[in-house]
Design a protein that fits this description.
By secondary structure, this protein is an all-alpha fold. It has one domain. It is built from nine helices and no strands. The longest helix is centred in the middle third of the chain and has 37 residues, at about 135-175.
């Protein structure tokens, strides 16, 4: 049974989830002191952890300001972080809870990425940093699939949040209609994400051979998912899976092993989803925020 919670509590739970995935899990169970003793690895991890801290602070400030400052609800209050189905996001997603949408995204996009991989389409859609070969596969996957996507998607969330706050201010000054605001919100979120992705890729992954057009489209897609759902975890799942599949196939050459691992993930989370949400597989008509 879903539990109704205040939006600010949902925001704090999501923040706790980010810290768990990007900090507690990697440093408690995976990345050991031996890995961090290497200056190159330490500097790499330290760089992304500082980005993570900055992103957590930035999105908190933006969310609290947006939560307290609601000058015109006709325009909408979503910054795309924990604003499921709120204007200008699609109201349809109010049918789902945050964990429900996250599990569905994990299952759906795992199938998409696995299918592409088995069809030998193994190109990364954005920059990727991995640990040197002497470290364990789990160490490398923890960095590439947990720490890096968390930090980069938090920066993306801050970027989109600032763009939407700026657009709201401009809309109120110019007496913009709700429909105009919604259109511009989608445009700045999608193309703002794409431009951010290209700038970030060109700066941090300057040696990458991934096409900037591919990078732009991928980050635009994450911006689209952000503004459409209003939930940070959805584009994060896509970014995580992009990195996971590329790093996994770099470490292990067997497509059978990859299919087995991903199959276990899909079946496991599919079963979990059914057990928890079997009475509301396609969402609920209750539009209150739930978890």
């Amino acid at each position: 049974m879903a539990i109704k919670i205040p939006k600010i509590i949902g925001f704090l739970i999501l923040m706790a989830f980010i810290i768990l995935i990007s900090y507690v899990f990697p440093f408690s169970f995976v990345l050991g002191k031996s890995a961090l003793a290497e200056p190159e690895v330490f500097n790499l991890v330290d760089f992304y952890m500082k980005l993570l801290y900055g992103g957590l602070i930035g999105i908190t400030v933006i969310y609290v300001l947006n939560y307290l400052w609601k000058p015109n609800n006709k325009l909408g209050d979503s910054i795309g972080f924990f604003n499921i189905g709120e204007k200008p996001s699609l109201s349809y997603f109010k049918r789902f809870t945050a964990p429900q949408l996250t599990i569905l995204a994990l299952i759906f996009f795992s199938l998409i990425f696995l299918s592409a991989n088995l069809l030998n389409f193994k190109q990364s859609f954005t920059g990727l940093k991995v640990l040197p070969q002497q470290f364990t596969p789990v160490d490398s996957l923890a960095l590439s699939s947990a720490i890096i996507p968390s930090a980069e998607n938090l920066l993306l969330a801050v970027t989109i949040g600032l763009l939407l706050l700026g657009l709201t201010f401009l809309a109120l000054r110019t007496k913009m209609s709700s429909n105009e605001y919604g259109l511009y919100a989608w445009i700045v979120s999608i193309f703002g994400a794409g431009i951010f992705g290209v700038i970030w890729h060109s700066t941090v992954y300057s040696g990458s051979d991934t096409s900037l057009l591919v990078v732009f489209i991928f980050w635009c897609f994450m911006g689209l998912l952000t503004i459409a759902t209003g939930l940070w975890t959805i584009p994060f799942i896509v970014h995580l899976l992009n990195n996971f599949f590329i790093d996994f196939t770099r470490i292990f050459t067997s497509d059978t092993l990859l299919a087995l691992v991903v199959g276990i993930i899909i079946i496991g989370f599919g079963g979990l989803y059914y057990l928890i949400y079997k009475k509301r597989l396609f969402g609920s008509n209750n539009t209150e925020v739930e978890i």
